[in-house]
Structures are given as structure tokens and as C-alpha cells.
Amino acid sequence: MMNRLQQSSEYIRCLEFFSGIGGLHYAFILSEIKGEVVASFDINIIANSVYKHNFDKEPITKGIDSLTIEDIEKYKANCWLMSPPCQPYTRGGKSLDDKDQRSKGFLHLIDILSKLSDPPNYIFLENVLNFEKSRCREKLVTQLCLTNYEITECLLTPLQFGIPNDRLRYYLMARKRSDSYELENIISPHEYLKNAVIHQTWPLPPPLSNQQQELKHSEPFNIPTLSTYLEELTEGEIKRYLVPEKYILKSFNFRFDIVLPSDRKCSCFTKSYGSHHIYSSGSLIQTKNLEFTNYNFEEPSSLLELELRFFTPKEIARLHTFPLKSQTLHENPIYHEKTIPRSYDNFLKRNYNGPYLEFPENISIKQKYRVLGNSLNCFVVSELLSCILFL
Ligand SMILES: C[S@@+](CC[C@H](N)C(=O)[O-])C[C@H]1O[C@@H](n2cnc3c(N)ncnc32)[C@H](O)[C@@H]1O
After folding, report:
1. Which listed residue (86, 145, 268, 387) is catalytic?
2. What is the mean pLDDT of each run of 10 residues along the chain (391 residues)?
3. How far, in Å, are 17, 71, 316 from residue 62 at the CA level?
4. Scanning 81, 93, 294, 331, which has the fewest C-beta atoms within 10 Å of its C-beta?
């Protein structure tokens, strides 16, 4: 089914704020919406070098908090894509919310939005769980209501899209009201905040998602096993990714997440993945004694013989559904067993002509983990763009 935008002639010109390695840019390309990303903004030099390597266009390194109205208006963009820093809303980041220096760029964009002569028709935002309870979100939706946007908010994980990775994230999609019927239905920020629903099921209830009819009769997603996402590593390569013994031995009583290749779920990868923070930064794969799953975290030395390893950056990129050149999943027979409308397996079978995610040679493994941990699930975002934002 084509969405409204695919049928119309509206051409989308996106600004991508907090662009990192371009997860939103990939998602936009994957959504097959007619348009382009006209400029991206980020201050991280490493992430920007990866972005430039793949999109052949350097993100603007000026801090978003210092952008002027003219800096933004000159692009004549009708869509904003953004994934602001998440630390202000996490316990690890002290949950300082709008008082955190790292939310300055985002708050500045909210302020600018109220001053633009021609605000964007579409806004997409990705953030972490807890953003939905934040003062920053309250400020954003307040501004959006005052500027006549229709808002959809949800909390979703890639598991709901048939991908064996749990990464629960908050998404907001806002569309500027235009026709007279829509303008009659404007609600005040107070009323919106009182009644707002944060959707947690996929597809979203009708009439929010245009895929509702297609998905209604489909069977539940058959989530593939992690093994289908793993690289075929040589013994030498496996050694490179083994979790150092000292990390395991010092993790007394920390129930870090161990997964088997036959599992159909792994936990969220954060930017600390690959470091000594093995608790809650992402799953570790058991490579030996696969029949043994009765882990004793009170005796970490008993876990050493399982030869736990980190997922490789390529495996994480696959789980985050970045388009990769070596997309071996394409050929995997498991994906041809069933055709599930709009599930990830369909997406993989499409002919993809856009840029792939590759890392420049000088980027270390640690840097790859950091930028991937900061990034997002491209398929989930592409679905939200094509099924909700541009409905
Ligand atoms: C959550 S990450 C976004 C990652 C991105 N969506 C991706 O796919 O890689 C947030 C990004 O915001 C950038 N950032 C933080 N504060 C900024 C500011 N004031 N101006 C520009 N970029 C900023 C960080 O460097 C980081 O890359």
C-alpha cells in the first residue's frame, strides 16, 4: 500500500540533527520516501568521519545549540529528523533532564521552532525510555501543540518488528496540520498532555497506521535466531572478541546477559559495549559448552569455560539493521519460509541501491562500539517514517 506522500508530489527535504553515523539518514532512504537529507549536524568528529565516508557529505560540526534561524531556514527543509543525546534521561547520566548541559541543543531547536517563518511539516524524534516522562518532552509537545502539529508518540522495540534485539525506544512523530478540518481539531498543550497516549503495540491502532489492514491478518513475527546474524569467525578472530577474564572475574554477582546462538533475543547495546562494563551494556555470546545454561554469577570463575565473546561491530550493525554490503541474511533460507507483510525479512529482500554502512580504516573497534551503541534501529525508524509520519 502506498502512503499519502508516495502518492503525492511532495518532495521531502530533511535536516538531520544529532546525526551520529547517520542512522536516521539510512532509515529515511530505506523508507523510500521521495526526498533527501539536505544537511546533517553533529559535533562528534569520529561519528562525522564515518558519516562522510558513507554519504560522501560532511555533517556540519557547529554545535546545534548555536545554530541561528538563518542557519536553518537557508536549507528550506520541510522535515526535521533528530535523535538528541539520551544521557539527560538516564540514571547513569544523572537524570538531570532539561537542566543537563547535553539537552541544550535540543531545547534550542524547540526554541527555534517557534521562531521560524515556515516551520517543517514533519518532525521525527528518537530517544530513550524515560524521555516520555521528561520535562524536555513536555516542552517539545507544548511547542508542537502551539505550532499546530498533530503528534503521535510510542515506545517500541525491534523485537516487535521481527528482529532479535531488545532496544526499547521512545519515538515521536509530528505532522503540521494544514487543511481546515484538521485546523478545527487543534488541542491545547494542557489538554494534550492530560490525555496523551504513548503507544506500545505495533502496528499502532487505526487510524494511526496505514499498514493496519495488511498486518491484521498476518501471523506473529517469527523472530530468527541470533545465529543468523553472527559472522563466521575464525578461531583467531573469535579470540579478538573474547571477553577478558578479568572483566568476568570482577563481576561477582552481576547477572550480565549471556545469550546462545540459538536464542531469539539479545539485549540493548550501549556505547559502553566492549569495555569492562559488561553488566547492562549488551549481551555476551556463549561460544563453548552450549548445553550449559545454569549460570552461577556468584562464582564468576565458573563462567570462564563458556568462552564468552562480544558481538562484533558488524553483528551489532546487522541487528541495528544498517544496510551492509555483506548482507548474508539475504541468502538465508530461513527468511523465505514465510512472507510476513512489512516484516524485516521483506525489507532484506528489497533491492537496495543506497549507501552502505562501512567504517573507515582508522576507526578502532572501541570507537565502532561507541558510535553503534549511540545509534538506532534503521528498520524500525524506516517503518515509523513510512507508516506513521508520512501517512
Ligand atoms: C544519540 S546520538 C545520535 C546518534 C545517531 N542517531 C546515529 O544514528 O548514529 C547523539 C549525537 O548528538 C551529538 N551531539 C550532542 N550534543 C550536540 C550538540 N550540541 N550539537 C551537535 N551535536 C551534538 C553527539 O555527538 C551524538 O553523536
Report:
1. 86
2. 63 98 96 96 98 98 97 97 95 88 97 96 97 97 95 96 95 89 80 96 79 51 88 93 95 90 97 93 96 94 96 96 73 42 58 90 97 97 94 81
3. 11, 10, 29
4. 294
Query: Which helix or strand (DSSP H or E) is residue 309 part of?
Result: strand 308-310
Domains of the chain with bracketed CATH: 4-217+378-389 (3.40.50.150), 232-311 (3.90.120.10)
Instruction: Please state, in angstroms and rounded to a whole number, the distance separating the CA atoms of residues 176 and 183.
Output: 10
- The residue contributing the CA closest to ligand 1 atom 15 is 85
Pocket of ligand 1 (CB under 6 A): 18-24, 41-44, 47, 63-65, 83, 85-86, 102, 105, 371, 374-376
Told to judge if 136 belongs to the known catalytic residues of this protein, a careful annotator would answer: no
Does a cis peptide bond (omega within 30 degrees of 0) precede residue 244?
no
Instruction: Give, using CA atoms, the residue closest to atom 11 of ligand 1.
Output: 18
